[in-house]
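Weekly puzzle thread! Below is a chain. First person to post its structure in token form gets bragging rights.
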Amino acid sequence: MDEEALAELGAYVAAAQPDKVSASSVANGELTLQAPATEVVKLLTFLRDDANCQFKQLISVCGVDWPQRERRFDVVYNLLSLTHNQRIRVKVETDEATPVPSVTGVFSSANWYEREVWDLLGVMFADHPDLRRLLSDYGFEGHPLRKDFPLTGYLEVRYDDEEKRIVRQPVSLPQEMRRFDYLSPWEGADYVLPGDEKAEEV
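Winning reply:
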């Protein structure tokens, strides 16, 4: 679909729902609507039911972490209209403490998508029927897709052969003692490197 038609669709939705669309943009052949988090249920309901939209399928719900922002999270809804062969993206912003209304009443497929966003980023969804972790283990601490989550995590989970059970312990990163000669590679080492003993002396 060309960008002009996408811009027209964005203008139509913004005119029909002026209090629910705060911005509309087309970039790289994709239409994105920015909306207040409190209005996302009404906006997605309009996009699903309006005859000119008919976005009947929720393709995904995902999150983006912008730690430098006051409202650090974007929650992104990707919708598809098979009737009009169009896609649309709806973005809302939130912070760590403010829940986003759940859209499971509009799209039942949002159930697991919202659970995934909660599990990996810690975004709360108000009125979700079963908001619990989806991918990480029971008792997992933190949310691993946040930018401030340590790459190693907080706990190491492994099977202990001696105890014959799975153990959880704080992550430690021991490094074996290694010998460094700190010589420049251009100067060469003061000992014979493996394989050099075969070289002919000049």
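Puzzle host: Confirmed. Bonus trivia for everyone else. DSSP finds three helices and nine strands in the chain.
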